[in-house]
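Give me the fold.
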Amino acid sequence: MPVPRRKKPRLCLVAVLAVALTGSLGGTASAQILPTQPPSTTTPPPTAPNNPLAGDGMWIWYLNKAQRGNPAKIAGKARSRGIEVVLIKSGDGKKYWSQFTGALVGALHARGIKVCAWQFVYGRAPKREARVSANAVRRGADCFVIDAEGHYEGRYAQASTYMRKLRSLVGPDYPIALAAFPYVDYHPAFPFSVFLGPGGAQYNAPQLYWKTIGHTVDAAFTHTYVFNRAYDRPILPLGQVYLNPAPGQIRRFRNLAVAHGMEGVSWWSWQHARKRQWRALGGPASGIPGYQPYNSFPFLRQGSKGDLVAWAQQLLVGGGFTTPINGYFESPTRSAVLALQASKGIAQTGNLDVPTWEALLTFEPQPVIWTKSGAYPARSGGATVLPEPRSAKLPAKRYEIPAPKARRPR
């Protein structure tokens, strides 16, 4: 999560697209939503029952900087501002943070506050990181959030190892969320498809820090929503109360979440929020009269490359269509898309447009175990074992939030 370095009206749709949706996958093929591509009419993916992140949440980095770590005072302030869940740091890489204890969880539970743990992960020792993650779960956390950022770019094998180890320790149904970069198209080598794919996190909490990014709330929200919804996980965006954003922007963010049918939002972070940000968090959020979410999808075509392509290829293979899973949209993938379109009565463009994404997302994705070398026969459970995709070597287009090397050590 970033640390500090230093209400606009809603834009019209054309302006939002011009500002926010100008990315490409790997710099060779457009991944933007094209004005000629109509928005879909589908609703967001349903959330799982008993979502522990439902409602309003606040992230806590250092416990002693949140009401000096006093559970009664934390719960009291949270309730006074409508905060229903606190997300407390429980680990950093291979190190467990002693501030996250069963006694703390129990004290907050007794006062009606849900408690989730979060850990920043690096991918250097994924099995050890997974054991640190599971330690917080054993201490009674209602959910666990993976904070994976630039250190994990290109590390598909490590992400695969981490998720498989974590699931073996906490079980297949324990609620896990991913908090990662919001602009998926800026990070073609980040393994979103691993963290949010089969056996991964059930929830997606992108770090939608509009002020840090330098976009309006609306533009940042639209960009994040369109590219993240391709992974078909409930989106519960993480907004910012650091860098002193205007209260009207915070309220707009909350209202946009309601307008998009999202069950919850959370905020980074307790220790950085000033009085006016805390005041903006209180009170009910409401929809926005006349607002229509831009329910589109990333537009992919031959020449596109990156994790979104690898994810689409997993879905194609899961649907019975033949294509490599390598993160490059080449002629075999185009042939698979054409076959899908023909089977569904969709215009045969060979591109992944809105109708094609909607058909694609009815399939179960092919599970993949990524390794550093070699492909192997499918293992029990039907997972395909593959070397890391070619797209794992692609550079980030840019960092919409500060690059890891520019941040203060955690």
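The chain has two domains: 55-281, 300-393.
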